[in-house]
Structures are given as structure tokens and as C-alpha cells.
Amino acid sequence: MIEIKLVLTNAAGLHARPAAQFIQAAAAFKSKITIQSGSKRADAKSILAVMGMGLGPGAEFLLTADGLDEGECIAALQALVESNFGER
User: Fold this and answer.
1) Is 15 a catalytic residue?
2) Of 3, 18, 39, 66, which cross-links 85 as Cys (Cβ 3.0–4.6 Å)?
3) Binning pLDDT at 50, 70 and 90, where does residue 82 land?
4) Which domain holds residue 20?
5) Catalytic residue among 2, 12, 15, 20
6) The CATH number of the domain where 41 resides is what?
């Protein structure tokens, strides 16, 4: 199991388009992936769960992956978040 803390620096946070990108990237991996912020925890492969977290710009969250491809998974999702989901 691998855990890292990430901060959303994009303008929209983890809503709509960025959330969809995040879910699609997470779905490409077999590992169990969760995000947690405060007392809220969500399955990172569920659009409703992720959007229900209400993570806006500047929000910090813990990303956890557990499985055979956890290293690749964490690296890919970290890169997506740190790239601001392709926003300028």
C-alpha cells in the first residue's frame, strides 16, 4: 500500500471535468484506490463518490493505492493532479 498527500492547485478543484479525468485515470489500474480528506473517504473510481467529496481549489487529500500496480497508479494520478489536469 502506498499513500501520498496531494494538493489541488487547479481552478475548479476536483469537480466535473477534472473529476472525470481523475476517475478515468484511476480506472485504468487494478489497485484499490481511495482518496481521503478530513473524515471523508471515497472510492477513487466512482465519479459520484469523488465529486461528493467537495474538494475545491487548495484542498489537500490523501491518495492511497493498494494492489499489484500501486506504484504506477500513484505516479500517474500524482502527475495528473500536479499538471493541474491540463489547465493553464
Assistant:
1) yes
2) 18
3) very high
4) 2-86
5) 15
6) 3.30.1340.10
